[in-house]
Amino acid sequence: MPYAYLDDVATADVAFLAWGETLEELFIAAADATMNAMVTDLESISPSLTQGIVLESEALDLLLFDLLQEIIFLKDAEGLLLRVSRIEFMRTENAFRLVATARGEEIDPGKHEFVVDVKAVTLYRYRLEETPRGWEATVILDV
Amino acid sequence: MDKGGNGKYNLKYRVFNPFPNSIANTLKRKVTAMISTKAFRKISDTIWEIPVDYKEGMRVPARIFATEKLLREMDEGVLEQVTNVATLPGIIDYAYCMPDGHWGYGFPIGGVAAMDVETGVISPGGIGFDVNCGMRLLLTNLTHEEVKPHLNTLVDRLFARVPAGVGSSGFVKISQDEFRMVVEQGARWCLRNGYGWPEDLDRTEEFGCVGGADAAKISNKAVERGFRQIGTLGSGNHYLEIQVAKPENIFDTSIAEAWGITIPNQVVVMFHCGSRGFGHQVATEYLKVFLSVTEKKYGIKVRDRELACAPFRSPEGRDYFAAMNCAINMSFANRQVILHRVREVFSEVFHRDPLDLGMHQVYDVAHNTAKLERHRIAGCLKEVLVHRKGATRALGPGAEELPGTYRETGQPVIVGGSMETGSYLLVGVPGGEKTFFSTAHGSGRTMSRREAKKRFHGKQLLQDMENRGIYVRAASYGGLAEEAGPAYKDIDDVVGATESASISKRVARFVPIGNVKG
Fold first, then answer.
1. B66 pLDDT above the threshold of 90
2. What is the ipTM score, two decimals?
3. Which residues form the domain of A75?
4. CA atoms within 13 A on the CB side of B467
């Protein structure tokens, strides 16, 4: 599990640190950390349907913000619980672009055990950084 | 993506606000150690000032309203955040934090800031993602003894009829176009569709519909995210509770009576929820808009990206205000529909009309908003933009914004406590002038969610509470454990501090007997 929830940061919210050797690994880890804040067991989400996600942002850290936000959006708008399985990055002239494949299924309260609903990704002390070991991000979710 | 010669990604981006462990440890340190330092100036037993030289860029001092005990328990994160708020352009008098204040994002929870409408900014981080999260209180004319035999049935039916938890949708089936009308009309839309009584509007802040809401300023995504969620509680600290007003917990008999609390051990219903995914999406989208203009277009440097903002009179500021007002109205509609469901359930269980059961609403308050209000600044009445994030408007007696009885007594203020301990009904007082008539909104968290989950077990907690006469239905056991009573400050201390500081006054305290937990 390439992420850890941080104790005692932003009392009423959920903070996590996610990491990866590559940017792809980090984005996948951060998406799982966001879903895992809501769903107790990620293994309970069957990969029965596929959802493509294409996003573009001028800043790389905000591209991650957008990906996490999209997962939260699809949870409410489409009733989907999703895990990102593949992700590709592209660099356009002025922006970073990602094309992701997410797999999952519709919410089933009989099958999925929930902890808390995530409302949004906050930018308070939000951070994406390249480190000697790869990449890491710190994110605080409003729940 | 391009890779540079050394095999690393060639990325142009700047690390903003690094958050190494050393900083986290500092921020979660309690304020205790700093109280005797020159960072604090004690103004009174319940008002603590942090002067402008505490941090570069502060335009006004910060003021924390708390007893010394409550202040000592606050995280230093509160200090960091309330002093960040003090740097925002156009802030008037002080950046405030209420006694239930705790470490949040952007503003602290419990944060209040009034901005000059001509020179000041509006910031989504000063309102919160859950726009118009708020509290509603309604009465019954039933006593605890009369409700006891039906308590489990009531809670079970409320749990079924007021959906809670992740991914829940409400019973109001409307098109996306209709939803756009809801967000412009708020609770008035509900009345037109049979979900409520005309008197409910008089007993709702802004009469259930704030002006200036413009559905042209909201995105399709925000509508898609929210249009199925009218009539849902949400999760986290959102709840619907059946409570009792014991005679020993009435502090102001004449006001309690004027507001309809007249019977010993009278049963009331209180609930806490907001604008759901719609409000969250509106706030998120505009946060990103503001992020791209705060510094680049308006030259405003903020100390935290969550405080991204724009001048209130700018196109971005105006658009956000119009969209945020839509979210305020969605929330009023949400609570109005829930009120209707509660009346239905009581009526079914007791085989009596809700009117015959005396199910009148006492009031509905918002605690995550920015609103245009008239306040006395340097002796003159002036329109200002008051941000309240986890703080409640508390108008005193005589306020023109209040109808009938409430203009005489002052505004009812509903303060939700933890599900184990109890909640309060307060009243606004003239002394509220010093906080732009703002007071606390809840008991305020003091323990992180993860810590609470380590210490408490959901199923055990449910059993313990039932043994103490509180019947609970929860959408999630994990979520329940996070809301255990000891995770919160002592609500008696919090409301006591608001009374000592003369920003609100106790009317009644309610103890829970049944709880639907999101």
1. yes
2. 0.96
3. 3-142
4. 6
